[in-house]
Amino acid sequence: MHPILSLRHYTHDLIAHSHDHPQLVFGLSGALDFEVDGYGSQVRQQSFVVVPAGAHHACGSIDGSRCLVLDVPGDSWVTQSLDAHADASRRLLDSAARRSLDAGQSQLVNWLASSPVDDPLIARQGAVLLLASLNNTNPVALAGRRLPYAALDAHIEQYAAYPLQVADLARVAGLSSARLHARFIAECGQTPMDYLRNRRLQMAVKLLCDTPLPIGEIASRVGYSSQSAFSAAVLREFGASPGQLRRESGAKTR
To answer: Where in this chain does the record put each HTH araC/xylS-type domain (predicted)?
Structure first.
């Protein structure tokens, strides 16, 4: 079980996962790009993000970010610890949102961040006090829009032969890598690299069926360094080898 309160440092390394408990992430310094279920925001000082239980989320910080994280143990803990504030706290924890802190709440967050939060008593009592103080915060809308698939597809097609990375697609979409990853999971149910691989293989099938290019040449054009790796990828994706796909295509057109 995670500690209730913890101090965390985030870097450009992408974190993407979900967990079965609610979480609040409070900005202390720097800017943290954050996505919850495909909707994005940025966590800075005097703001925090609500991550409901089970919500897929991703985050990363280009220049580094320091945050106070509250991992809520569960609903029974909320009931036992928050008493009259429990219902309001549940409503807070049930909806993904970025919220702003007033001066008093921000002071409490900073005080807890400078306290020994690894002490179980301080962490438990501090979490209760912090949650109770947040029940009147106002949500700020999280940004959401469809990914620019046409632009992404055009970029993949133009540079299919090169070693494309998530950061390349993120630049096309105008998003951070963390936001792009979470947006793809929410909209497509797959990662950006899965999408990239699928687009390359779709291009390869078109070349196999519509041109007489050698299979090795097609493999190179869609970013595979070896024909064997390309053939294995095609077999996994389509259940047939490149040669079989080409022969089947020829039979259909005769």
So the answer is: 150-248
Burial 105-132 (b: 16+ CB within 10 A, else e): bbebbbebbeeebeeeeebbebbbebbb
Closest CA to 80 of 89, 68, 91, 71: 89
Smallest CA-to-CA distance from 248 within 213, 217, 205 is with: 205
86, 46 contact by CB (below 8 A): no
Reduced to 3 states (helix: H, G, I; strand: E, B; else coil), residue 251 is: helix
Query: In b/e form, how buried is each residue of 193-223, taking b as 16+ CB within 10 angstroms?
Result: eebbbebbbbbbbebbeeeeeebeebbbbbb
pLDDT computed for residue 252 by the predictor = 54
Predicted confidence at residue 30, as pLDDT, reads: 87
CA 126 – CA 24 distance, rounded (Å): 13
CB 158 within 8 A of CB 150: no
Is 3.30.160.340 the CATH classification of the domain at 5-140? no
Confidence tier at 37 by pLDDT (50, 70, 90): confident
pLDDT at position 36 over 90: no
Q: For the domain 149-253, what is the CATH code?
A: 1.10.10.60
Q: What is the pLDDT of residue 237?
A: 87
CB burial of residue 174 (10 Å; 0-12, 13-18, 19+): exposed
More confident residue, 253 or 42: 42
Q: For residue range 58-77, what is the model confidence (pLDDT) as tens digits?
A: 888 877 899 999 999 989 99
Ordered by start, the domain boundaries in the chain are 5-140, 149-253
